[in-house]
Amino acid sequence: MEKIKQYLEKINKPAVKSVESPDGDIIDCIPVDKQPAFDNPLLKNHNIQMAPSTMPTYTGGNYTYNTESVRQVWNDAGSCPDGTVPIRRTTIEDVLRAGSLSQFGKKKLNYISRTVTGPTTGHEYAIAHPTQPQSSIYGTMATFNVWDPYIEVDNEFSLSQLWITAGSYQDMDLNTIEAGWQVYPMLYGDRSARLFIYWTRDAYQTTGCYNLLCSGFVQTDTSVVIAGALSPVSTYGGTQYEITLLIWKDPSTGNWWMRYQNINVGYWPANLFTRLSTYATTAEWGGEIVNTSPNGVHTSTDMGSGHFPPEGFGKASYIRNLQNVDSTNTLYSVQSITTYADHPNCYDAKSYKDTNWGVYFYFGGSGKNSLCP
User: Fold this and answer.
1) Could you count the other beta carbons within 10 Å of the beta carbon of residue 116?
2) How far apart are alpha carbons 222 and 225 in whole angstroms?
3) How many CA atoms lie within 13 A of 330 on its CB side?
C-alpha cells in the first residue's frame, strides 16, 4: 500500500483548481509545465510546443452524413484556467482494481495489442488497413461512432481505435501510437465510453501506458480530458454520435500531435520513440475486445454496438473518413481497404464505398451467439 501511495503522490500533481464531474471523476487543473509527462527522463529540459507548427492540408472530397458530435461529461461541471491542463485524478481504488501497481495502466503482456503480423493472445479484432502497402506514413485520421457496449467481465474491454505503428514484435522494437474510445471497467471503475490513448516503444514490454498514467504524452489543451467520459452515445436505430481523431507528425519538430474533434489536445514528443522518430509504416483502424474466458469458451462482451456489419447505418459500428498524411503534410483519402477479423463468427468487419462517405467499414458483433462458442 505504501508503494501505491507513493505512486499516487507522484502521478497526481498539485492542482490549481479541481472540478467534480457529474460521473464522479475528479478533474485536476495542473500547470502545463508540471504535468506527469515531464517525469520521463527522455523529456528532461523539453521545450513545450504549445501548438503545432502547421496543420495537414486536405484537397479531397467532403463526406457527410446525418450524425452528431459527442461531448465530455466533465464539461458540464466546470473548466480549467489558461496555463493548465485537465487531468483525471487517479485513486487508490483505480490501482487496486488492476491487481498490482506494475500492471496498472498497462496492457498485460499476455494480452498484447496487434499489428497485421502481431500476436493476438486474449485479444480479438475486427480491423481495416490500406490495401496498398505504404512505405512511409506521417499520420492518419478517422471518424468513429461511439457506443457503450456490454462488458461481461470487469477485466475485459471493448474499444474502437486507430493505430500508427513502426517496428515489429519479432525485434521487440514495435512503436505504437493509439487513440479512440473504450469501455474498460477494471481501468476506469465504470462502464462509460471514454476517450483513450496508448503508446509504447518496445512492443508493450516496459514502456508506455494508457492515457496519462505514466510520463510521455504532453497535453497543451485546457478543455479535453484524456480518459474522460463521452456523452451521449449512439443508440440502435437512433442518432449516431461521433468523434473524429487526427494524429500527425509535425513537420518542424517531429512530434506526433493529436487532434480530437477540432481541438489540438497535445503530442507525443519525437524522442519518446525509436522507430516512430522518423515516420510510421502502418496505419490501421478497427475494433478490439479482450476475451478472458478459458478453454475456448467465449464471454458475451460486445464489440462496438454488439451488431454485425450487414445491419448497416444506425445499427452497426463504423469508422469512416479514412485519411492518411503523406510526407508533404497533406491528408489524402484512403482509396481501398482490406478488412480482417480473427473470429468472424463473433466479430466481423466489412468494407463499403459510396458517394457520401467514400471508403469506410462497419464492424462489430456479439461475443456469444449461435455461431460464436
Assistant:
1) 12
2) 8
3) 6
Peptide bond into 232 cis (omega under 30): yes
Going by pLDDT thresholds of 50, 70 and 90, the confidence category of residue 133 is: confident
Selecting among 124, 156, 178, 284, the annotated active-site residue is: 178
Residue at 285: amino acid letter: W
Handedness of CA 181, 225, 258, 216 (dihedral sign): negative
Annotation says 178 is catalytic:
yes
Backbone angles phi, psi at 101, to 5 degrees: -65, -35
pLDDT digit string, tens, across residues 274-309:
999 999 999 999 999 999 887 768 899 999 999 999
348 close to 191: Cβ distance less than 8 angstroms: no
Other beta carbons less than 10 A from residue 79's beta carbon:
14
Please return the burial class of 82, using the count of CB atoms within 10 Å of its CB with bins 0-12, 13-18 and 19+: exposed
Coil, strand or helix: which one is 124?
strand
Please work out, in degrees rounded to the nearest 5, the angle formed at the alpha carbon of residue 349 by the alpha carbons of 347 and 353.
160
How many angstroms separate the CA atoms of 329 and 144, rounded?
Answer: 23
Instruction: Give me the catalytic one of 124, 242, 284, 288.
Output: 288
